[in-house]
Amino acid sequence: MDDELDPKGHNRAASAGFTLIEVLIATAILAVLSAGAMLALRPAPGAGASDMARFQTAYASQRALAIAGRDRRGLRLGARQMQVTLWRDGGWAAPGPAIGFEGPVQIDRGGADGAPQVVFQPDGRSTAFAVIFAGGGRCATDGWTGLTCDG
What we know:
Elements: H1 20-41, H2 47-69, E1 73-77, E2 81-88, E3 91-93, E4 99-100, E5 105-107, E6 118-120, E7 129-133, E8 138-141, E9 148-150
Antiparallel strand pairs: 1-2, 1-6, 2-3, 2-4, 5-7, 7-8, 8-9
């Protein structure tokens, strides 16, 4: 007798297998895992691309903080690092550690008297500058319009 009944009277052979919901859930889990594996295994961008993205993020956040806090902020750029600076008590102070770049960076504007090369005003303006990253990427602004990056 192949059609054995369980104590409740259900046919065990008919309940063997997977339901449509179980198959869909398993497929969704596998899709998420494979997408994660593809992202983890993709080739890393060059130093210039990641440095440019890091600079764009710092630029946008410091500009927004200057507007929101109604104070002056800055970014001091070196060949291999940048540092956030704040205008406090008549001078520039660096509240935290420098952020390193993976490749060399050039900026066409020097900070005078210890001032950062990029200064953000409370009204959203900044100093005019151009930054060139390893690999040929470039970010620039005239101080009035937003930051434009290419490369």
